Glucose-fructose oxidoreductase domain-containing protein 1
Amino acid sequence: MLPGIGVFGTGNVVKVIVPFLREKGFKVEAIWGRTLNAVEEVAKELEIPFHTNKIDDVLLRKDVDLIFIICSPNLHAQIAVKALGIGKHVLCDKPAGLCQGEALKMVRASQYYPSLISIINHSLRFLPAFGQMRRAIVDGYLGQEGEITVCDVRVQMGSLLHDAYDWLCDDTMGGGVLTLVGSHVIDLVSHLTSQRAVRVHGVIRTFTKTTDYVNGIRHISSPDFCAFQMEMSGGALVTATLNNHLPASFSQEVLICGQAGHLMVRGGDLYGRKSGSTKEDVIYLDVEDLQRGGAINSTAANAIPRPYMKGLFKMIGALREAFLPVEDKRGWVKEPVALAATFEDGLYVQAVIDALKKSNANREWVKVNVITEEPDPDPLLSAAVRRSTISM
Amino acid sequence: MLPGIGVFGTGNVVKVIVPFLREKGFKVEAIWGRTLNAVEEVAKELEIPFHTNKIDDVLLRKDVDLIFIICSPNLHAQIAVKALGIGKHVLCDKPAGLCQGEALKMVRASQYYPSLISIINHSLRFLPAFGQMRRAIVDGYLGQEGEITVCDVRVQMGSLLHDAYDWLCDDTMGGGVLTLVGSHVIDLVSHLTSQRAVRVHGVIRTFTKTTDYVNGIRHISSPDFCAFQMEMSGGALVTATLNNHLPASFSQEVLICGQAGHLMVRGGDLYGRKSGSTKEDVIYLDVEDLQRGGAINSTAANAIPRPYMKGLFKMIGALREAFLPVEDKRGWVKEPVALAATFEDGLYVQAVIDALKKSNANREWVKVNVITEEPDPDPLLSAAVRRSTISM
């Protein structure tokens, strides 16, 4: 039987996901929002039977077995760790948390409850074009493995901000193009190339500090532009340009070059060209209609770019499969979501984001360091304790 | 009367330019090549009456008044300085030279003979789409001046190498994507934004070190990939990705964003969008046919990408106008080529290239330093001399 779902968050994405979850047969039992006013409105609009502004009131419900965390990143770790601790499956929006320390707590929780499903919403992995791209790379379209030379990613889109001040304006709460789009790019290219970032360099900027809606004493600290380079473990070089200065448009191109050819995903379509070939191969064209069944409110559908939404829908489809086999006593298997980003992947992405922020601050290349122990909250105190222990 | 032309170089570009020069009414009197064999062949094919492998034999000819330097960059400065010194006009291919020292010598020569025309072949300035883009920026399409936020340039193309080992394979002779394409990009964005690079960061790579034609004891040292960022004097941030790993194709996109809108040149066409507008403006479509008059050999036309060739043709048209006004006693005026890149511009571009190379070598941001004095060839010796002078 499909698990009952508890949703954390009241953003536009929620308005897209809830109808789609129902279409797939899931029951959405409860929703949490930061304020009662906001969550009441969304619960009414989406006809969700229970709403609250208390986290535990959703987590402890008996009819909720799967948690969708789609709120501001500063709450991700807290909710995810608690949910796993009381035996609930978790799908957590990207990025994993605000820093590696938070992401590591999530990893620990997922390792402690290995039978529970715990995945990060890096939905592009599920977009068919990228599935095909990965298969082509594994099959040697670009040459032998390790022969990948350059990955170039470009995302051009409008502002990520809403018409009011909220966490999206705030760098310290996880807003901005690096955490919200860059995290996807880091996960995607690492997944596609089977290589991990070793050393990175980034330029992160906030050009638009005020808008018609955010001005006066408040200003925007979340970045609206980011360009970064990553040296990968297998020798590939990744360059990415993420730009929020093209209002009302969205274009995303992912190019991967190897000695034997190149592959390019534009939007949801995959093109390729083998070296020496006189023409471009059209490997996959995305003609499937997202709006089938009419379940998706078209204005809400504009909330997230098409490739991300489509990947998310495919991922929810995989999640459904994970819960369908009835012969399994536990009621679920993990295989259908094996493709999904794990909390470990989330920790790695967070490590790269931390390195990019440090690179930007210090204008230097920074080695990616995935932590395995929680950072010491007060290194000076600890050192003093060590000294006093030694002197005793 | 139009001046007689002496051409330096025997590459494919020469085979495109010479017929076009004739179509415009110029007489090509002499050609120089590195080897007699090579130059003899090209002279015969292009029906140029005089050929030689001695530089002076072209420069000293009485029927030659305008020099086209389209050979390897290591010879640019030497030929340009000599030509100006004996009163000949010079069009010199980019980059100005191999280093700032060479470019500075060219600047000095052009300053010493200010009435002579001395321009660098940064032909994209003459491409109509970029002329329109510059006008739109000046007219405030992107907002007030200084409100430019991001310029993003992407050039994707095939290999720059020929089917044999030559200077294009050699970094120290000026080969590679940074000097040959990057120099254009640096000049173009500086020209379009009326800002200059202050601080730069670059990643320069040679992924393809051998080919079917270059292997064994020889290998390729010229870069085939380059990604760089430039902080501009007016606050704009430039990002550029130049990629030689897409065989048999060419795509070039120049995006400039401001607070009030953005402008994008794709190929030879200009698009724009004002903030708040619901649709993209098609500002300029390049429908003019390059092949008019049949003057251009189509295989040769593949030698340089269309926007560069078209810009070059427009520049030659301007050069023609410069020599047309008969009422001027000297026989030429500089106004029609006022748009062209000067040798000073060439020095600036060279300073940026030098800074990018240093940035790549040291993995750091580097301040752009345009030299005004020739670098000391032996700083240790000079210091010793100064010390001995002081002690005397």
Observations:
- The first helix of chain A runs from residue 12 to 23.
- The interface with chain B takes residues 149-150, 152, 154, 156, 201, 203, 205, 207-208, 225, 227, 229, 237, 239, 241, 243, 245-249, 255, 257, 259, 262, 273, 275-276, 278, 280, 363-365 of chain A (CB under 8 Å).
- Chain A has two domains: 4-124+301-343, 128-284.
